[in-house]
Amino acid sequence: MDYFVGLNDPQQEAVRYLDGPLMIIAGAGSGKTKVLTTRIAHLIHKGIDPFQILALTFTNKAAREMKERVEKILDNNEARNLYIGTFHSVFARILRFEANHLGYPNNFTIYDSDDAKSVLKTIIHENNLDDKHYKPSLIYNRISSAKNQLISYIDYAKDFHFQQEDSINNRPMIASLFEFYVKRCFKNGAMDFDDLLYNMYILLKNLPDILNKYQHKFKYILIDEFQDTNPAQYEIIKLLSAVYKNICIVGDDAQSIYSFRGATIKNILQFKNDFSDVKVIKLEQNYRSTKSILHAANGVIIHNKIQIEKALWTENEEGEKIKLIKTKTDNEEGKLVSDTIAELKLRNHFRNRDFAILYRTNAQSRSFEESLRRLNIAYRIYGGISFYQRKEIKDFLSYLRVIVNPMDEENLKHIINYPVRGIGKTTIEKIIQFSNQENISFWESLSRIPEIGFRGMVKNNINEFVLMIKNLQAMLQKNNAYDIAMNMSKTTGLLKELFNDKSIEGVNRYDNIEELLNSIKEFTETQTDEGELQDKRLGSYLQQITLLTDADSDKEDQDVVKLMTIHAAKGLEFPCVFVVGLEEGLFPNIMATYNREDLEEERRLFYVAVTRAKLKLYLSHSNTRYHFGNLQQNDPSRFLDEIPENYIENSYASVNTWTTNVGKSIPKHNIKIPSSGVQSRMKSLEYPLTEFVLETNFIPDDPVKMKIGTEVEHQKFGFGRILNIEGSPSNLVATILFPNFGGEKKIILGYAKLRIIDNSKSKDIENNESIKRL
DNA sequence: TCGGAAATGTTTTTT
DNA sequence: ACATTTCCGA
Question: Between the CA of residue A456 and those of A57, A422, A433, A459, A463, what are the distances in Å?
Fold first, then answer.
C-alpha cells in the first residue's frame, strides 16, 4: 500500500501489528501521529469497520487532526465514522446516552473547575466552616485526586493516606465535604470533569450488559499520550479492551508531565505486566530537531533515574548551537526575545508563526506581550482565561444550562437575579430553606411560591421568571441550540443589558456574546460526521462546549507568534523556540524541588520544551523578576548546567545591561510613596519587636549600613531580621526572615526598600528628591 | 442596597 | 501587579 511509503522499519511494524496488545514507545518527534493515523487507515483498509475503532487523545485538537489525516490517507468518507476524541469528550458522549442507568438525567450539566469550586464554597459555608482554612480549590484538588484514583467518598473516609494527611493538616472535615459535594452534584444533575471518568468506570464496572456492549463495540482501541493517563482512565481502558485485547498505546515516559492531575507514569511501566504478550516497538529516530537540539535534550533527560531505556537519534543536520540569553530584568528578557524574533524574521525570512515562546507559568506572558506589541509583531497567547471563562459568557451559558437542566441549582441561583429582577438574597435564602424543608429542588420550590409565603412584587417577579424559563424549555424539543439561545438572549433582557453598557468593557462584552452566538450558530449549521451524534440541540452543544479548551479554538493559519505554557505546547513543534524564565524557583518551580519525583517531572517538562524546537532554540533567564509585585533575585536554572557544554553557546547575553555597573544604574533609594493598600496590609501584622506605627513617608535606609543580624522593616513584609548577606559589593543579596510574611526572603539590597529599626526610627525627610521623581 | 474603597489572594502546570 | 472579595458609608 502506498501509505507505507516514507515510514521507517519500526514505524511500519507498528502500523502492521494489528491484533493483540501493542505498546509503542515513541520518542519526541519520532512521527507517532503519523504512525497512529496510518495505523487507523490500515485497519480500515483491512476491512475493520470504523465504527469499531476507538481512538483516545489528550486534546480535542489532536483528535480533530488525527481524523483529518486519516481522511486524507484513505481519501474517502469512512474516517467520519471513527470514534476519536479526548477521554472526557468520548465518555461524556457515552454517559449522555447511558445516564439513566446511573440515575442521572441525559441532559446532565458538566461543571468545569470553577463551577465545582463554587459548589464547594457553598457547601463549606453550609457546614459553618472557614473557607480560609477549607479552601475550595484545595478541597477540589483532594476530591479530584481521589476520584482519579477511583476512590469514592466512602473509601476516602477509610483511606489511610488521605485521612492521615487531612488530620496532619487539621482538615478532618474533607471526607464529609466530599460526601456533601458528590450528593449535591448528583442532586443538581451535574458531573464535574473527574465524574466523567469516575462515572464511566462505575457504569462499566457495575453494569455487565453495558460493559459487554462497549467491549464489543470498540474492537480496536488506540490511546495517544498514554504516559499522561491517570488510574481511572487506565482502569476504564482495561475494562473496554478486556475481550478483544486489541489495544495499542502510544507514549513516551520522558514526556510525562501531568502527575499533578493524577496521571501516573506507573501506567506505562505497568502495561507490560497487565496484558500478556505485549508487543513493544520503540520509535527512536527523531525527524524533528537538529542534532544539537536533540543531543542537548538527551543530555538533560539522562539525569532522571526513572525511565524506559531508549536512544533517540536523528539524521538531521547538526544545526546551530543552542543560544543562551541572560538579562537583568524580566522586562529586558521580553525585550531581548522580541528583538531576536524581529531580527530572525529580517535575516532568515522567518514568519511570525515560526516562533513560539514557552514558559513555566501563565503569569510570565506579560513582558513578552508588551515587547512584541511594541515591535508590532502579531502574537497570540494560549491558555490563561479562556473565552468560556469570561463572566458574560458564563452568565449567558448559565441561562442555557438552566433551560436544559433546571435541577442545576448552582446555575439557577446564578441567574435568578441577573439581570436584576428584584429577587434578592433574602428571597433566595427563603427558597432554599423551603426546598430543604420539603426535600425538593430549588426549581420545584419556585412553582410553590404561595406556600413559601411570597406575595406582591416578589411573587410576581418569581412567577415571571419561572414562566420565562418554562417558555424557553418548551422550545427544547423542536428547536435547535441557536434558536433557543437567540430567543433567550432577547426574552431575558440579557442582550439589551449588555447593549446598553457603552463603556469599553461593555462593548467588548457585547461583542463576546455576539461571538458566542455565532459559534452556536456554527454548531447548529455545520454538517456533523455520521459518527457523531446528529444532535443539534442545546443539551448537546452545552456538553461539548465545557470540554473545549483554548487551543481548540485555534485559527490554524494565523501568522502569529505563539505564547503558551510548556504544558500547552506538548505535541506541538515550531522552527524557532524560546524557552524563557529558566531560573531556580521558577523552572524548576519551587513547588517541585522538594522531592525527587517532582523534580524529575520538572526535568521532563524541560525536555518537552527543548524538543519542541526544529531548528533554533533559545533559552533565557533573568537575574531579577517581579513576583507578587516584589522584586526577586533568581539563580540560573540547574537545567542549564545539565546541557552538555558543546551544544550551547554561552556568549549570547545582553552584556551591557548585565555584568557591569549593576549598582550604578539603579537609584540608591528606590522609594515609592506607599499606596493605601500596602498600609492597611501592614496594619494587620503583629510583631513583638515594636508596635507598628502607620506612616505616610517610608524612607529606606542606606543598605551599606545593614549587617547580618540587623533588624529591618519592609513596606510589605513587615519586620524582619537579616540572616545572611552574600554577593558582590555592587550586588548584595540579603536573606531576611520575615516572621509575619511567610518566612525567609531573598532581597537585593540595592533595590530593596528597607528601613533599619533597631538603630533609629528617624523620619529623614531630606531624601525627598527621589520621592518627587516617582 | 449600591458603589467605591480597602483588604486580600494569587502563580505551577489543565481535561 | 492585578483581580477578586469584603467592607463601609450614605
Answer: 55, 11, 20, 5, 11
User: Is A203 strand, coil or helix?
Assistant: helix
Nucleotides of B under 7 A from a protein CB: 1-2, 5-15
Instruction: Decide if pLDDT at A637 tops 90.
Output: yes
Structure confidence by residue, pLDDT tens digits, A28-50: 999 999 999 999 999 999 999 99
Q: How far is the CA of A525 from the C1' of B7 (A)?
A: 49
pLDDT one-digit tens code per residue, A643-686 = 999 999 875 555 433 333 333 333 322 323 333 333 333 332 22
In angstroms, the CA A520 to CA A292 distance is 47
Q: Is the CB of A742 under 7 A from strand C?
A: no
How open is the CA angle A231-A235-A239, to the nearest 5 degrees?
A: 170
Catalytic one of A38, A52, A227, A255: A255
Q: Which residue type, as a one-letter code, is found at position A3?
A: Y
* A677 C-beta less than 7 Å away from strand C: yes
Cα A475 from Cα A466, distance rounded (Å): 15
Cβ atoms of A736 and A752 closer than 8 Å:
no
Matching residue, cell 523552572: A587
Q: Is the dihedral of CA A610, A613, A617, A621 positive or negative?
A: negative
- The mean predicted confidence, pLDDT, of chain A is 84
Strand C-contacting residues in A 99-138, CB cut-off 7 angstroms: 131
Answer whether A40's CB lies under 8 Å from A55's CB.
yes
| Neighbouring C-beta atoms of residue A759, cutoff 10 Å | 11
Check if the beta carbon of residue A170 is closer than 8 Å to that of residue A147.
no
| Other beta carbons within 10 Å of A470 | 12
Backbone angles phi, psi at A414, to 5 degrees: -65, -35
Strands A322-327 and A648-649: parallel
Contacts of A476 (CB under 8 A, 6+ apart): A403, A404, A484, A537, A538, A539
Known catalytic residue: A526? no
Query: Which amino acid is it at A116?
Result: A
> In terms of residues, how long is chain A?
774
- A706-711 contact pairs (CB < 8 A, 24+): A706/A734, A706/A749, A706/A754, A706/A756, A710/A756, A710/A758, A711/A756, A711/A757, A711/A758
The secondary structure of A209-269 as a DSSP string is HHHHHHHHH-SEEEESSGGG--HHHHHHHHHHTTTT--EEEEE-GGG---GGGT--THHHH
Mark whether A33 is an active-site residue: yes
Could you tell me the pTM of the whole model?
Answer: 0.82
Q: What is the DSSP string of A308-342?
A: -----EE-S---PPEEEEEESSHHHHHHHHHHHHH
The residues facing A110 across adjacent strands are A191
* A344 and A652 Cβ atoms separated by less than 8 Å: no
Q: H or E element: which one contains A157? A: helix A153-158
What grid cell was written down for A149? 484514583
Give A695's DSSP letter. -
